[in-house]
Structure formats: structure tokens, C-alpha cells
Amino acid sequence: MGHIYTTFFGLLLLPLTLRAGTIRGRVTDARTGEPLVGAVVYLQGTNYNGQVQLDGTFTLRNVPAGEYELVGQLVSYQLLNQHVSLTEAQPDQTLSLRLRDKNNALEEVVVQGRRDPEGETTARRVEQVAPSIVNVVSAQAIQVSPDIQVANVLQRVSGVTLERSTNGDGRYAIVRGMDKRYNYTLVNGIKIPSPDPYNRYVPLDIFPADLLQRLEVTKALTPSMEGDATGGVINMVMKDAPAERTLTGQLGTGYGQLFFDRSLLSFDRGAINRESPAVRNGSDYQAKTSDFPWATFTHKTALPNLLGNLTFGSRYGKNQRLGVLLAGSYQGQTRGSNGYFYETGITQDNYPVLRTLHVQQYSTRQERLGLNAKLDYRLNSRNTLRFYGVYLQLDEAQARFETDTTYKGNARPDVDRRLRSRLQRQGIANGTLQGEHQLTDRLSASWSLVYSRATNNVPDVTEQDLKLTSAGNRYQDVSRIWLDNTDQDKAAYLNLKYDLGEGLELGVGGLYRDKDRTNRYLSYQLRASGQTAVNEQDINSETYTVFNPQGIYVGNNNYTATEKIAAGYGQLRLVRGAWEILGGLRFEHTNQQYITSLPTSEAAYKGRQLYPDYLPSLHLRYALSPRQNLRASYFSSISRPSFFELTPHNNAGSVSESNVYPEAGNPYLLHTKAQNLDLRYEFFGAGNDQVMVGAFYKNIKNPIEYALVALPNTTVTVYQPNNFGTATNYGFEWVGVKYFGPLGLATNYTFTVSDITTNKARNATAGDASLSVPQKRSLQGQSKHVGNASLLYKNPRLGLDMQLAYVYTGARIVQVGQFLGLDYWQRAQSQLDFSAEKRLTKEGKRFGLTAYVKVQNLLNTPYQVDILAAGAPAAAGSPATSALPYQDRADRVSVVNQTFKAYYLAGLRFRL
Q1: How much is the pTM?
Q2: How far apart are CA 203 and CA 314, in angstroms?
Q3: Residue 788 CB: number of other CB atoms within 10 A?
Q4: According to a count of CB atoms within 10 Å of the terminal CB, is the N or C end of the chain lower?
Q5: Rounded distance between C-alpha atoms, residue 432 and residue 451, angstroms
Q6: Beta-carbon neighbour count of residue 637 at 10 Å?
């Protein structure tokens, strides 16, 4: 009977159903034509509503015939009403809604893209209109990704791989197989100094990702950009003042799988002397054992991770002339790893020999702090002032438990148990004052005054070493080390543009930077009694004496250095029809000086290098259609050696039993020059759909690599940075994003080949007395295959966003070996991460609340390094080596293995 009633009422309603219609359409920006993803459309006075999809389209189904007012709505855009009439004769309508930004007048003065500056649409637009080859990651993409710091975000960009810390967290970026020395880092377009104690490149794990408006990776330099980047330029554009008053924030917590399985090893930070005895009491002070308290190590349950941020932005005054943005981020994490590494030597047959096995557990409490302030003030329609202030800080309290086993033929191996405490604080502060001025109808000017400071402080690195023997356990001699460095920049930039008419623009400008760098290294040697430990569980029971009570200042990391860069450029930009041509010449003059802590009587205690560089570039863009570009670029670039590499340090007093050569600096090291070519085809489809296909070639003169070199007038051989002829690097890149309704697939792949020839040592064998022979190999850090694949689900109507992200990094040399064919190869890696977020409140409400989860390293991908890994020239070898722990393959020698396990994070995000 129920089926009969259902059929009857269905027949009665059939005429009404047939009269129902469908309203379809597309919502775009009235000025740019870009789809406005997330906009809401509704029929006024009814319950019919819908949300704009990724391609800008919307659909309202089963709408009865009648007269309606269709409303289009999006935050920071003006409401748009459009009359719609549905009749029985014409039940379906297709419309086009073009919304106008509420701040059109302001955008004419600032830059296009004030609307939704953090969205995917803006990121694609920046890539499309950029004068050179750029990849952009939006804040929106960062927010929904599995990543919380900038280095990990970069691994999603085509051609970018990471070097990771001992905690498994990304730290340095390698772009297109070019080592981190060939990149530089910008904040809001301004170069920043590095807190790294040895190098120029910036550790990118210091940056919380939630402070960014977008992340840009530029792979082809224009004349207005500084020239010391052959791989790429990483620019972090920080959040800017929004068009409307906004308060956003988040709070999250999580845990690492590693600490479900073991305890956290920690130490008392209060026992760490932040200043050395010499700094506290004067350089003539005779240190006593009481000046060196020992940290107490304890095992405890790891605290949950805690993450939070808060951002406030608004505009004030008449015509909203003043923009204010204040943002802060805190990320407290407990990270760690389990693993081992071997010290190696070599036999007379040039086979690797394993000497000492170090089995390690790292436990690190990591606290990342970021503060960002931006102010902009429009004096009038022709003049704007801006101030940017950024402060970043990364604290790491790292405890390491280690067991060392040294193998000596068939004799009983030596075994040591070591506990190390290491406290490190790195910081970067940047303040930039800028102005933009329209001086005449044709002439405009922009300028920047910059002060930046990077610091690194590692106080009282302490190691407790207990040797385990059959005759009783004994404490060993140890070092207590204080290390700190400061890098300070003062810079001024000026750029002028003159409109010559007919689509032709002349640009000239320059910069001056004064860099000061100070490195300090102080080591005290504590001598143990040599007697059996009274209480091996308490190092305070050991009687130590201070061997060098004034410390050792003359180490390989004590110097002051200055670098003065003066640069100027001229460029012409022509826009004519579908063509855009940008070309010009940049000139950079470098003045580097250093003074070491060596005695002034030694000629090597100070040094200086002066060199000019002329860097031409040419960039062509042809718009095949409004959504397609064809690009070609040529640019010349350089790479300056680090100050540490130039200082004439050496520790050539002795060669260790494991046959590892000492290191030395090279005051005669030349800077690297490169010629670079790029081609790329670009297609920007509806919504986020995208295709980029390109190729690149680099010819590198005087690349810097480490090799074995005999010191002049001696028989001592050291491991030293040197210039090696010419290297090449070339490859192919693919980027593809395609959505099928709410489902999307994002892929990128980079194929890279490089080669360089450097000298290697080879032990003498019968009939072959060679000590140094050339070896052709790939560049350090270059992987032949690099790829990303992400499965995406985006449903604006449900407020649901999910992604499963896969990263593949092919095998690569992570350390150039000292012996022929015995480089250290990182095995290929596959990493899988997951993230999801769900809107908990209705779209368009004043208060928005979203829940999110992030999971990293689902596959527990290890970090593994081998000698003679796949792709190396010969098989590994000796039976003695293969019999040692962790050696399960005959064709390679495993020297490093670290596991990190998965990290879980969940939280809430709000918006007012």
C-alpha cells in the first residue's frame, strides 16, 4: 500500500518537478577575470544557495519558475545582485557574475592582488605575469599542507630537495641539484644573513610557515636581482595588512611516534654555563674544575608538542591609508632519532674499512619563535611608506646517548659510553624601511634601508665519556667548547623606472651592503685521572684537571670578516602585443677581508679579495593565449666562498688512526661563475589547473668542492675546498595540477644530470704508486630523479580539504669521499605525509572555526648513507667489513642509518 501512495503523490508532483530549472554560472574578479574560489551565491529570500568551486563555477538545481534576485558574495568584494527570470519555456539560465574589490582605489596605488593575497589564484597569477621563471606556494596551500616550517614546505616545489637535521626535519634547500651554497634567501625581497657558523646559506627550519603570505622560488635571475644564485632564490613574502580588520589564530598539539616507544633523554639546562670562564672572568683567568659543572641527564616522558599563532591586521584612517599587520608564532616540539654511523678508513686495495661504530639516540626539545610586523602608510596617491620587522629564533636542547665500538682486527674491541649535552640558539632579526614614489607621470622610484642581524650561540658543549674495559670502567679526557658567531648587514637599495612610452620601460638601480661577521671558538681540555671510576653513574666522582686553564682560542673558527658589496644595474622592459622582453646588465663589486686569531707575525693571519663581476641576462615571454606562456631565459651568476673556507685554518698536526685526513681552509679560493639557460611552457587552466614543462642547462666555472691537497712545501695532505675546472648541470622539469570535480592530482618531476672532476686519493698498490687521481662524478647533493605526487580532495561546500602527499628523492652524494670511488651516497627516499582540515562553522559567518590534522613520515622513512651505493663505480668489499653489525649487503657498505618515525598534529584554527 505504501508503494501505491508514493507513486500517486509522485505523479501529482511531476508537473511541478518538470517546471523546476537550473541556474549555472561562473564568478570571477571583475578586473583580472580570475575565478573567485569560495564565493557564495544565493537567491535572495529563498533557501537556494551554493558555493563557487575551484574553476569558479556554481550550480543551483531544482529552482521553481519565477523571478529572483541572485546575489554573489565574497569577503573583501562588493555584493553583486543580478535579476534572474525562470520560465517554463526557459527553465535554465547560465550567468556570469563579475565581483568588484572593495578596495579598487587602493589597488591602483599598491599592487594587483590585494584581494585574497594568500590564495591559490594569486599564486598562479604571480607565476603567470612574473618577468622570469618562478614557482609559488600560497599561504592557503601551506596552511592545508602537512608542513609547519618553511624548509619542509620547499620539498613540495619542483626541483627542490632537502638536507635534514639529525631530527629528520628539513633544514637546507638544494635547487635543481645545485648544493645549498648556490642559493640565497630573501625576506620580503631583502637578502638576510645566516646564523650558520661556517657558511652563507640560511637554515630554513628557523622560519615558521604560518607567518608567510606566499613562498617564491625564482630559478632565473633578472638584472635587478642580486647575482649570487645559480640554483635559485628563495623569497619569503610575509603576511600583509588585509583589506578588512581580521584576527586569526590557531592552537594545536601532537606527539612523535618515536617517544611512544622510548623515553626522552634530557638534561638540566640550568647547569649549562652560557658564558665561558674566560668571558666571565677575563682572558687571563686560570680556569678551575669548579668552573665546569656537569649536566645531569634524566629519562622522562616526552611532553606533547604545542603549536600556536595569532595574527591581527587592519586598515585605519581616511581612505584606509594606514595598514597594520602583527603576527606571532610559537612551535614547541620534541623530536629525535635512533641510528648509527661508522667511522671509515681504507685498505691498500682501496676498499673501505669500518673502524668505529657509533650507535646513537638523539632527543631534542625544539622551540621555534617567529614575530612579524608590517606597517604601510599612503601619504597620498603617489607616495607610500612601509616598514617590515621580522624576528626569528630557534632553540634546541639536544641530548645524545651513544655507544662507541672501535674494531682492531681480531683484538677485543674498545667500547665507550658517551652522553652529550648541546644547547643552541639561532636568531635572525630584520628591519626594513621602504618607500615607493611616483615622481612624475613617467618616473617612479623605490628605496629600502635595511638592518639585519643573525646570531648563533652554542654554549658549553659537554660530553661525558666512560670507557668500558674488563679491568674496570674509566672516564676519559673531554673538551668543553663554547661557540658563537654574529653576522650583521647594513644595506641600502635604490630602483628607478622611467616609462619611455610604446610599452618600453627603462630601469636602473643598485645596492650597497656592509657585512660584518665574527666567529668565536673556545675549547678547554679536561684531563681524567686514568683510574677506575669510583662511581660510573656519577661523573662528579671523577677527579679532572684543566689541561689548558686559559682555553684554546686559536682554533679553525676564530676570525672577524667584512664584506662590502656595491652593485648597479640597468635594464629595458618591452611589452608589445603578446611579447614581453626584459634584458640588461648587472655589475657587482666584492670586497672581502678577514683577520684570524693567528699571531700577527704570520702572513696568513689576515687576507683580502677584490673582484668585479658583469652579469648579463635576457628573459623572453610570449603569451600564446591569455592562459599560456612560452618563456626563454639566459642569465649569468656567481657564488662567493664562505668566510670559513677562505680563512687559512688547518688542523694538520696528526692523521687519525682511521686514516681520515685533516681539514684546512684555502685563502686562494676563487668565486664560482655560471652561465644559465632556461626554457619553459606554461598553461594556467580553470581554478588551480596548471601545466609547466621546462628544461635548464648550467655551465659552472670554478665550482667549489672539497678534495685532498698537499700543503705547499710539505708532505702533509689535507681535505680542502678548491676550484675544479668546469662542471655542468642540466635537466628537465614537469609540473601538472588537474582537478576532476573535488578530486585533484598534483605532480611534479625533475630529472637532473651533472658532472664534475675532482682529485681523489688512492693508496699505493703493487705497480701503482698514485696518491692523487682524478674522478668524474655528479655534484654533491644532486639527485637524478626528484618527484612529488599529491592526491587532493577539496570541497568548498562542505569545507573539507584533504591531501596525501608523496615525495621521492633519488640517490645522491651527501659527502664527497677522500678516496677514489668512495663517495658517501644517500639512498633514494620515499616519504608519505597526510593532512586534512574541516570547516566547523558556516561559510560567510563572521566567526570561522576549522579543525585540522597533520601527519608526517607515515612510512617511517629512514636516512641511509652508503659507501658505494647504487650508481657508484664498483662493488664493496672485504669479508672483515661485511661481518660487522648492520652490514647486510655485499655491494655496499652502510655507514649511516637514522630513523625518526611519524609525527602527529591536530588542532583548531579560527578567524574573526
Answers
A1: 0.86
A2: 32
A3: 21
A4: N
A5: 7
A6: 25
Closest CA to 139 of 239, 278, 275: 239
Q: Are strands 21-29 and 57-63 parallel, antiparallel or unpaired?
A: antiparallel
Mind listing the pLDDT tens digit for each residue in 805-864? 999 999 999 988 877 888 899 999 999 999 999 999 987 677 899 999 999 999 999 999
* CA R_g for the chain: 31
Spatial distance between the Cα atoms of 119 and 740, rounded to a whole number of angstroms: 20
**What is the Cα–Cα distance from 153 to 211, expressed in whole angstroms?**
13
Q: What's the CA gap between 361 and 421, in Å, rounded?
A: 12
275/533 Cα distance (integer angstroms):
29
- Residue corresponding to grid cell 642559493: 183
As a whole number of angstroms, the distance between CA 556 and CA 649 comes to 5
Residue 713 CB partners (closer than 8 Å, separation 6+)? none
Amino acid at 813: I
The angle subtended at Cα 592 by Cα 586 and Cα 598, nearest 5°, is: 170
pLDDT tens digits, residue range 603-627? Answer: 677 889 999 999 999 999 999 999 9
Helices (H) and strands (E) in the chain, counts: 9, 47
Give the DSSP H or E segment for 13: helix 2-19
The residue with cell 669521499 is 817
DSSP string, 623-678: EEETTEEEEEEEEEEEEPPPHHHHS--B-TT---TT-PPPBB--TTPPPEEEEEEE
> Using the 8-state DSSP alphabet, how is residue 552 labeled?
B
Q: How far is it, in rounded angstroms, from Cα 859 to Cα 458? A: 33
3-state SS, residue 619: strand
Enter the C-alpha cell of residue 163: 638536507
pLDDT in tens, 331-362: 999 999 999 999 887 765 667 788 899 999 99
Q: Where are the alpha helices (DSSP H) in 716-850?
A: none
